């Protein structure tokens, strides 16, 4: 075979990063920011991809873009190639200069205002040339991003069973109510007593929501969820307005409008430091070692500050 690739493949190779970013983000502006190029340049690259393939790959939906059926098939077949090439380049660069490199790090919504920024600031002091690409998402999404190579490292709640994981500690879940709620003065409460209360919770895709639903089912009732929301700060604000009750981890910063009521029984979930099934670069290993050594002190300080 004389030719290693067709002209179409040769044309696509330098453009795949643009296609991959736009397909993953579903938004031209965010994809351009991710790649560090002007939006106009990214748009030209995407048109070039479509010309090389010979079919339409994107369709506009409001201010976003969505993949066509052909675009989705191309994305599924090429995203692993782009990720593998990125990993290869990262390894080569990091091996050449172990003081620099890129770490794609994820952490959950229920951590962040205190513990994670403090931990990353301390790490940056000791490793100022290592770049951090940060992603905040719920636990299931973070695990999927580590599993398919979009993240190098993540703190997840709970810890997964199928990836290399170091248990950092446990997160306690309690009942939170407004300060003028009828249960605000209780020192402890059983879940069965909450059967008639309106709940505020995360969407069903969140691990915390699934955990609360299963606990309530074991207590003999299905919680009536009046509000579903992804943002923990807004969720706590709604509870403080006496719009409902919630089962939550302790906030990392004090919230004067809330009262914590401990729940009876074992109400903890694990906090894991997760890495993918691949050899970490020196930069990734350095951040992992830092978190493994110091995580509990950061988490404890944030927990006590939030009480």
TrEMBL record:
Is Transcription regulation one of the keywords? yes
Q: Is the Transcription keyword given for this protein?
A: yes
One GO cellular component this record assigns the protein to is: protein-DNA complex
Q: Which residues form the HTH lysR-type domain?
A: 13-68
Keyword line: Activator, DNA-binding, Transcription, Transcription regulation
Alphabetical list of Gene3D superfamilies matching this protein: 3.40.190.290, Winged helix-like DNA-binding domain superfamily/Winged helix DNA-binding domain
| Single GO MF annotation | DNA binding
- Leader sequence range is none
Q: Which protein family is named in the record?
A: Belongs to the LysR transcriptional regulatory family.
- Under which name does UniProt file this protein? LysR family transcriptional regulator
Q: Tell me what organism the protein belongs to.
A: Nocardia yunnanensis
């Amino acid at each position: 075979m004389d030719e290693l690739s067709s002209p179409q493949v040769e044309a696509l190779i330098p453009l795949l990063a643009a296609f991959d970013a736009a397909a993953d983000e579903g938004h031209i502006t965010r994809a351009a920011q991710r790649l560090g190029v002007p939006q106009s340049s990214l748009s030209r690259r995407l048109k070039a991809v479509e010309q090389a393939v010979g079919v339409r790959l994107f369709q506009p939906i409001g201010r976003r873009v969505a993949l066509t059926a052909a675009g989705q098939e191309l994305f599924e077949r090429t995203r692993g190639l782009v990720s593998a090439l990125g990993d290869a380049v990262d390894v080569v660069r990091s091996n050449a200069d172990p003081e620099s490199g890129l770490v794609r790090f994820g952490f959950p919504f229920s951590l962040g205002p205190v513990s994670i920024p403090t931990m990353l600031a301390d790490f940056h002091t000791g490793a100022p040339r290592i770049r951090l690409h940060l992603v905040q998402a719920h636990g299931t999404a973070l695990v999927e991003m580590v599993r398919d190579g979009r993240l190098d490292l993540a703190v997840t709640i709970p810890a997964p069973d199928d990836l290399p994981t170091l248990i950092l500690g446990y997160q306690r879940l309690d009942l939170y109510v407004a300060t003028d709620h009828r249960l605000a003065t209780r020192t402890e409460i059983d879940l069965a007593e909450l059967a008639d209360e309106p709940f505020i919770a995360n969407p069903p895709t969140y691990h915390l929501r699934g955990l609360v639903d299963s606990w309530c089912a074991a207590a003999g009732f299905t919680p009536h969820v009046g509000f579903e929301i992804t943002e923990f700060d807004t969720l706590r604000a709604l509870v403080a307005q006496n719009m409902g009750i919630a089962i939550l981890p302790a906030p990392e910063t004090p919230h004067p409008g809330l009262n914590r009521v401990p729940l009876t029984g074992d109400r903890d979930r694990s906090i894991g430091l997760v890495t993918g099934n691949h050899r970490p670069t020196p930069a990734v290993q350095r951040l992992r070692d830092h978190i493994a050594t110091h995580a509990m002190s950061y988490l404890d300080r944030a927990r006590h500050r939030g009480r």
